[in-house]
Amino acid sequence: MPAPQLSVVIPAFNEEGNVLALLAETVAALRGVLDFEVVFVDDHSRDGTLALLQGALATTPELRVLAHEVQSGQSTAIRNGVKAARAPWVATLDGDGQNDPADLPGLVAARDAGPADVKLYAGWRVNRQDSGSKKWASKWANGIRSRLLRDATPDTGCGTKLFERAAFLDLPYFDHMHRYLPALMQRAGWKTLSVPVNHRPRGAGVSKYTNLGRALVGIRDLMGVAWLITRSRRTAVRELE
Questions:
Q1: Which helix (H) or strand (E) holds 42?
Q2: Contact indicator for 156, 122 with CB cutoff of 8 Å
Q3: pTM of the model
Q4: pLDDT tens digits for 135-166?
Q5: Is 144 exposed, middle or buried (0-12, 13-18, 19+ CB in 10 A)?
Q6: Rounded to whole angstroms, how far apart are CA atoms 95 and 232?
Q7: 156-214 per-position pLDDT tens digit
Q8: In the CATH scheme, what is the homologous superfamily, with its name and number, of domain 6-230?
Q9: Residue 37 and residue 184: Cα distance in Å, rounded?
Q10: Going by fewer Cβ within 10 Å, which terminus of the chain is more open, N or C?
């Protein structure tokens, strides 16, 4: 089987009410557009998520399913999915269904029209469908992050992203790194571009994060990424002949 042109990596934890619809939407958005695979990474769900995905393997040839033996978090699930991906470019979606797979062809088109040094196309939720408190917390966090990291990215929390696999795997790995991909890509010497995307209300289940919990972890992570940026060293390399 030839390698796909695009791998769609979707982390999921206790999302039995969302994964099959999300899979169907992703397949519908990409079939006939390019060769692709969908890699779901189940983060040791305690509900029927993994069983539903395993059942879908028989009817969806583009589907691959990875299962964590221990719950390890979203960043680890994304990284394991990217490591397993067979395409040179990877798109990500959150497993809760709030990201719209219909945006994926547009991200690929933006990539095809963009310069070669843009290695990350980050979704920008211009019309967020979340509670007022969640939107306020996100706006506050994005403002602080933007001032400290100067990554020129209005929305790093959006799960809809498209990036080069090799560039991603070259980044420093740590828990919650998926929230800082624009700054980390820029630290590595690449450019990033924000692309407006759709955002939808959660169809089923509940959010796995609280505003307070996200804020407490985010402060520590933000300081760590800022430190990484100050310690970055890059130089051009040439090989003698």
A1: strand 36-42
A2: yes
A3: 0.88
A4: 555 665 666 666 678 788 888 889 999 999 99
A5: middle
A6: 33
A7: 889 999 999 999 999 999 999 999 999 999 999 999 999 999 998 887 866 655 544 55
A8: Spore Coat Polysaccharide Biosynthesis Protein SpsA; Chain A (3.90.550.10)
A9: 26
A10: C
